[in-house]
Amino acid sequence: MKTLDDWLRYIEQQHPSAIALGLDRVAKVFSRLDAGIAFPVITVGGTNGKGSTCAMLESILRCAGYRTGLYTSPHLLRYNERVRIAGVEAGDEALSESFAAVERARGDTPLTYFEFGTLAAFHRFSAERLDIAILEVGLGGRLDAVNLVDADCAVLTSVGIDHVDYLGPTREDIGREKAGIFRTGRPAVIAEPDPPASVLKLEANLLLIGKDFGFTAEPHQWNYWGPGGRRGGLAHPALRGRLQLRNAAAALCALDCLHAAIPVAMQDVRRGLAEVALPGRFQVLPGRPQVILDVAHNPQAAQALAANLADSGFAPETIAVCGMLRDKDIGAVVRELAPRITRWHLASLPGPRGARASDIAAHLQGNIHQYDSPAQAFAAAREAAAEGDKIVVFGSFLTVADVMAWLKNNKTSIR
């Protein structure tokens, strides 16, 4: 392989299924891969809030002077976004080197795209002299490739209904799978305020929001309490949205749990929360009309997005640019947001999992327009919107990514 793009095309073809949960194959390859994880690890799982919590952890730890590794998925514009070293995306050459190491180690063992990438991230981290790594679970937890590594502290951000074909149809089923990242005797931070019983049955050192840690919110500041004591007068995180205080409290609780090995000063917490950034999570772009990018793609996330829109001020029109995957609960997602939307610009997504615009339209009434791509839907929304209107782009990482690419190509700034 000559380039990173060559590698990415290659690894897409090494397993007949896009998703194949289970640790047997990937563990076999990991045992042959020179990728020792000799530093603390925080693993973050959950239906929603994983990316935000990981971003806050990385920002705070970097402000404290630690050399961090961050592994997340999926990416928006570049694969490199998935692997960050000390706050910087891994370069093409470094990633290609790690993909080559995985290829040498796997022999004839088939790996999915995600499994291949996860092992490459572990290889990259092992070569980078890290102080700590933050790992975001891809799907579920128990059988996800990220779970090869024993977390020194696990975080469960939320438990909602999503990926039912893989995780089961109920919150009990889904919670059981997600809590598979917990380890006996090690801290497990649970930020879900109503955790299923299946989560509470495990033998980890459980820390529950509202019982072992929590927060109180005020108009211009917030207060945290947890295993390390109370911290008052905190500025709100730079990430917008009602649920970000819950994610921030989970991050601070995880850091409290690891304080003996990775101490963090209060000034680093304040600076880290002030400087954190994460594209596509209620990301409000500068300029008029107001444009909001949010990767919300399940009912729980759509409910949070609707609440954030309600808090974001009046607009004569709120135009939705929505494209979704057909295996998502399309009806439930659009029902959560319908009261906040005055006009729908629906987009078809590519590939076998992509829903057609007409599939989404079947769940809606009112002012509906259909387009072949999110970029086309967004361009039309921009044309139709007045200066005081809002455009909210949501439904999938693919939807947000296509609109971000359109903005970049049209030289429109993205913060």
Features:
eight-stranded mixed beta sheet; UDP-N-acetylmuramoyl-L-alanine:D-glutamate ligase; Protein-Tyrosine Phosphatase, Chain A; globular; 415 residues; alpha/beta; six-stranded mixed beta sheet; 2 domains
Structure description:
The protein has 415 residues and is of the alpha/beta class. The protein has two domains: 4-275, 3-Layer(aba) Sandwich (UDP-N-acetylmuramoyl-L-alanine:D-glutamate ligase), CATH 3.40.1190; 283-409, Alpha-Beta Complex (Protein-Tyrosine Phosphatase, Chain A). The protein is built from 15 helices and 17 strands. The protein has helices spanning 4-11, 24-32, 50-63, 92-106, 113-126, 164-167, 171-178, 197-200, 244-257, 266-275, 299-311, 330-337, 357-361, 374-384, 397-409, and strands at 41-45, 68-71, 83-85, 88-89, 132-136, 153-156, 187-190, 205-208, 214-217, 222-226, 229-234, 283-285, 290-293, 318-322, 343-347, 368-371, 390-394. The strands form three sheets. Strands 4-3-2-5-1-6-7-8 form an eight-stranded mixed sheet, sandwiched between helices. A hairpin with a 4-residue loop joins strand 9 (214-217) and strand 10 (222-226). Helix 3 (50-63) packs across helix 10, helix 11 runs parallel beside helix 12 and helix 14 (374-384) packs across helix 15. It is globular and about 55 Å long.
